[in-house]
Structures are given as C-alpha cells and as structure tokens.
C-alpha cells in the first residue's frame, strides 16, 4: 500500500514538473493566439557602424518565403545603435546611442536633469550625454548642458549628463527618447529582422532557412554574419533532460509498484485463507465461482486504487511545492491524463496481483470448506 | 420430487478408494419432513451434499423435478442450488463481519434481486423466524439460538423447494433445540416446505414424519416406506 502511494506519488511529481517545463517552453516560443510564432534574426557586422538588413533584403525574404511567413519587418533597435556621424560641439564623432522608453534611473545622472516620462512621450528634442564624451569635448562635463547635438541631421538639446557603464545599454554616449528618434523616419536598415511564421510551419526550421538564404543573397553578407539564436532549442534540450528523468523515475517507481504488488498479493492470499468460511457460505447460498473471483479482485483493486489516489494527491502537492522552490517560474501542471494514468496503473497493479489469489479463492472446494 | 437411483460414491484416501455410499435409492416428495440418522462417518453428510447439489462427483442418477441432473455442470448446478435449496448448518456459518440483514440477503443478492425488494423480504423473513428488529446486529452479539434462526432465515428467504439442515441443533442446548425444531415444524406445516434434517440425536429423530437410517453407507431403514404402505 505504501509502495503504491510512493510509486504513484513520485511518477505524478516528475510528470507534473515535466508538464510545467513543456508549458513554459510553449509560452517562450512566443506563440500568438492565432498560432503564429515570431523569431528574430540578428546581424553582426565586422564594422561596428554598419547595419545588416536593408529594405531589399526584406522584400527578397518576403518574396522568397511568402508561403511560410506572414510578416517580415525590421526590429527597431533600441540599444547600442551605431551612428556614423554626430556633431558634438565642433567635433564630428562616430558613436553609438541607446533609446529610452522609460526614464533612466536618476542615480546615473551626474549633472542637469533626467528625461522625464513626459519628455519621452512628447516629441521633445532632448538628449542625455555621457560624462566621458562631455569631458572629452567640453573639458568640463558641466559645460555641455544646454548645448546642441546633431544626429542624422536632427538637432537635440543636452538636458543632462549621465554616467556610462560597462557593457549594457548605458555603455553608449547618447540616450534619447525612442519615440523622438524614430518619428518621421522610416527605418530602412536594422541589425535585427523580425519574422512572423504562419501556423503549421516549424518556426525554427523556417528561420534557419531564411538565415541560409540570407547568407547566399543578403546585401551585406560579405561584411558580417547572420545568426539565429534558437531559444526553443534550448528549452527543447531542457525538456529532453526532463524526459530522460521521467523515464528514470518511472523505472524506480515501477520497481516500487512491483514490490507493492507482491505485498498486495500476499495480503490477498492471507485474506482468502482467513475467509475460507465466508467463501464456502457464499458458494453454498448460490454465488458462482465468477462472483467469488470478482469479489476478491474488486477488493484488491480497491486497495491499490485507494493507494493510487492517495499517491496522486501527494504527488500533486509535492510537485506544486517543488515548483515554488525552483526558479524560472515553472508551474507543476497535473492534467486529467495524469489522473487517468495514476488510476489506470494502480488498478492494473490490483488486477495483476489480485488475479492469482482471487482465482485461488474461487477454485476452493466447497465440500472441503463446509465439512 | 427428489429421486435418487443407485447412488454410489467413492473417494480416495491415501492409496485406497473408500466406498462411502452403496447403492442409495430413495424418493422424497414435496412437503415431506424427513430425518436422516446415522453414526458419524456413516455417510449421511455425503448424502445430503449430493441431495443439496453441493457434490457432483458420484455415480448413479439424480432426478430432480423430472430432470436428470447428474450430468449438470458446475454453473447450472449453482443456479439450481440458489433457486431450490436452503442450507442450515450445525455451526450456523454466518459471515461474522456482516450484519444480520446482509447475511440473510446473500442468496437474493446472488440471484440478482433489486435492493428494495431484498430489504422488504429480509424484514419479512426475520419476523417469521422471530428476530424482527435485529437487522443491524452483528452475529457475534446474538446467542446460539438466535444465530441459528438467522441461518434459517437465510435458508428460507429465497423460497427454496427444500431445506437441508445438517445437525441444526448440534451446537444448541435442549431448550433452544426444542424452539428450533418447532420453527422447522411450523415452516413445514404452514409453508409446505420440504425439510431434510440430518441428526444423530434420537430425540430429534423421533419428531420427524419420516426417518431414514444410514449405516456404513447403506440405507438400512426407511420409516416413510411403512407409513406410505399403511
């Protein structure tokens, strides 16, 4: 009985967690309601200032993969965008900038004022300058406040000086509002291409095809490399590990169930021999051998199914508890199928190990019993 | 109704065959109150096992209601037993962990009656044996006489054609024995149920309408034959 509870509980625990991982994987695949999935191809240029995808690339991909893709567009870059020329003070610099959707944390601000929410939402031509560049151009960083900076022919007024950092979006020289930067411009180049794959086509397969097409026909194929980071593949490998783990635990649970089954068989044999009189009486008053067989079989099934259901509940609780303890927000998911599995396995154990004692009970010689 | 013709029964004991019944031939008619007497080991229990469709390993013919049942298979015999025979045993043979009502209901349950019908019949039959209101009791709470009444209730609930009682008073004191015998007589006269009682108590044997005596597997005397002739 305890063996059955443990066996079923462990199987349900691992299966519930496995389900959680699979669920996570599906949601990470960015499947929209219509069943479409989006993927991204990025371009790494050898020259830092170049952007990989051009409008002609987009139209070529659209033409070539019209059947599989519903949408091809540039992804508006927000971080570390390279620009060829910006005029700061009197000097021309090739540099990079990041775009803000929400205000920068004020702890980075050194002089001046931060860009507020309103500044970002309205089409204000305001900009934040890194202290490094400001010092280089103006000597004292404070002097940069209020000066004008020309980027791509548009002038911005410096509102504040911020402290740049290592390798994230703040490693750039300029910070400005995303809305302002893209307003009025149609982007004709980008470093990331966003694909929307139609329902029924494997997202990673199609994307890989697009990547290899671009490697042959893309405009900037000689200056850089196209790559596709398959998040799905990563999660798939996790789920493969989960699958292997599931088989392993199932094997252990199988042994536990087998031992439990032998215990049940033993119990049933004892029950049959203790209740010889009862069997005799039942046979004498008109029970058939089949009736007796079913009676003992049902008793053994009830025993194991009871254990199975308790095990199912314990497994459910245990897996939910584990899912609270592990990171990545994996929720334990128990389905109706799992319930039926627990039910089926435990009743199968009941039938397999109850059959022999029940047959023995039904084959008892009536005259010997009643003597 | 019951017609036995040249019944012989052997069984193996170690290496030798024991011939336990020798050419038993007898008839029992509907409504008779028959006693079978004999010493222990004389074969009377074997004989009632054959009459009560419990044993089918014998030679000879058993004609029950104009049908030869000696070649019936186990399943057919079980149905026949369920519909026609009620058993009362010496040590009551009640199932200890079931209530009186459940014990009494067993034959009807196996015959496939509806629960509602069963409940009504159970209370009827318990009233008949003088145990009204004992439905929920457990056999161990009852006295020997009461337990035997439950066992009789179980035997008669299916309205059997005949009743077989193997030493029904063997485990009871003389006072309760008398009560149980009165109950049997009542059943015989009011319901016209055929009753076959096995006993080695001459006191009980005397109360029978007809008495068969068995000695070493031979039917040695049959008082009924004389009665019928007279």
What this model shows, in words?
- Chain B: It comes from Liquorilactobacillus cacaonum DSM 21116.
- Chain B: Keywords: Amino-acid transport, ATP-binding, Nucleotide-binding, Transport.
- The complex is a heterodimer of chains A (371) and B (230).
- Chain A has 11 helices and 13 strands.
- Chain A has helices at residues 2-28, 55-64, 117-121, 131-138, 178-182, 203-217, 231-274, 276-284, 289-325, 336-362, 366-370; strands at residues 37-45, 53-54, 69-74, 81-88, 91-100, 109-112, 126-130, 148-151, 154-162, 174-177, 189-190, 192-197, 224-227.
- In chain A, strands 4-5-10-7-9-8 form a 6-stranded mixed beta barrel.
- In chain A, helix 1 crosses helix 9 and helix 7 (231-274) packs parallel to helix 10.
- The longest helix of chain A has 44 residues, at 231-274.
- Chain B is α/β, with parallel strands linked by helices and 230 residues long.
- Chain B is globular.
- Chain A binds chain B through residues 277-278, 280-289, 291, 366-367, 370-371, and chain B through 45, 49, 54-55, 74-75, 78-79, 81-83, 87, 89, 93-95, 106-107, 110-111, 154, 158.
């Amino acid at each position: 009985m305890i063996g059955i509870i443990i066996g079923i509980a462990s199987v349900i625990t691992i299966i519930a967690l496995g389900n959680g991982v699979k669920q996570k994987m599906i949601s990470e695949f960015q499947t929209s309601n219509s069943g479409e999935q989006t993927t991204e191809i990025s371009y790494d240029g050898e020259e830092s200032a170049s952007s990989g995808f051009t409008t002609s690339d987009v139209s070529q991909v659209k033409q070539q993969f019209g059947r599989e893709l519903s949408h091809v567009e540039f992804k508006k870059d927000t971080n570390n965008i390279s620009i060829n020329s910006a005029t700061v003070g009197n000097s021309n610099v090739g540099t990079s900038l990041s775009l803000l959707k929400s205000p920068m944390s004020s702890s980075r601000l050194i002089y001046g004022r931060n860009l507020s929410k309103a500044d970002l939402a309205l089409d204000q031509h305001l900009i934040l300058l890194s202290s490094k560049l400001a010092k280089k151009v103006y000597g004292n960083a404070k002097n940069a406040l209020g000066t004008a900076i020309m980027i791509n022919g548009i002038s911005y007024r410096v509102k504040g000086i911020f402290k740049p950092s290592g390798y994230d979006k703040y490693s750039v020289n300029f910070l400005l509002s995303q809305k302002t930067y893209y307003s009025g411009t149609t982007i004709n180049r980008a470093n990331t291409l966003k694909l929307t794959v139609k329902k029924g086509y494997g997202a990673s397969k199609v994307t890989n095809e697009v990547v290899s097409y671009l490697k042959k026909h893309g405009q900037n194929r000689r200056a850089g490399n196209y790559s596709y980071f398959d998040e799905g593949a990563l999660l798939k490998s996790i789920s493969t590990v989960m699958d292997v783990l599931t088989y392993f635990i199932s094997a252990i649970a199988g042994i536990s169930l087998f031992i439990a089954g032998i215990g049940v068989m033993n119990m049933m044999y004892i029950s049959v021999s203790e209740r010889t009189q009862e069997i005799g009486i039942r046979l004498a008053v008109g029970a058939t051998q089949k009736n007796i067989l079913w009676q003992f079989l049902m008793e053994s099934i009830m025993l194991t199914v009871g254990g199975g259901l308790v095990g199912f509940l314990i497994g459910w609780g245990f897996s939910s508890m584990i899912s609270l303890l592990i990171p990545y927000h994996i929720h334990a998911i128990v389905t109706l199928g799992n319930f039926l599995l627990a039910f089926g396995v435990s009743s199968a154990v009941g039938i397999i190990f109850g059959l022999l004692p029940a047959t023995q009970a039904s084959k008892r010689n009536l005259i010997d019993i009643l003597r | 109704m019951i017609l036995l013709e040249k019944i012989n029964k052997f069984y193996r004991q170690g290496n030798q065959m024991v011939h336990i019944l020798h050419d038993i031939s007898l008839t029992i008619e509907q409504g008779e109150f028959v006693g079978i007497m004999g010493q222990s080991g004389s074969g009377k229990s074997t004989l009632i096992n054959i009459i009560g469709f419990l044993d089918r390993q014998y030679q000879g013919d058993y004609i029950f209601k104009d049908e030869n049942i000696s070649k019936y298979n186990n399943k057919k015999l079980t149905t026949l037993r369920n519909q026609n025979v009620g058993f009362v045993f010496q040590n009551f043979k009640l199932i200890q962990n079931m209530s009186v009502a459940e014990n009494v209901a067993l034959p009807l349950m196996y015959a496939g009656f509806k629960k509602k019908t069963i409940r009504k019949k159970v209370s009827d039959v318990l009233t008949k044996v003088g145990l009204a209101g004992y439905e929920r009791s457990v056999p161990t709470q009852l006295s020997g006489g009461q337990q035997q009444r439950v066992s009789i209730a179980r035997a008669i609930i299916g309205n059997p054609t005949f009743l077989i009682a193997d030493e029904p008073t063997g485990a009871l004191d003389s006072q309760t024995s008398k009560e149980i015998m009165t109950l049997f007589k009542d059943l015989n006269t009011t319901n016209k149920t055929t009753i076959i009682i096995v006993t080695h108590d001459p006191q009980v044997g005397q109360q029978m309408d007809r008495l068969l005596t068995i000695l070493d597997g031979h039917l040695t005397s049959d008082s009924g034959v004389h009665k019928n002739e007279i």
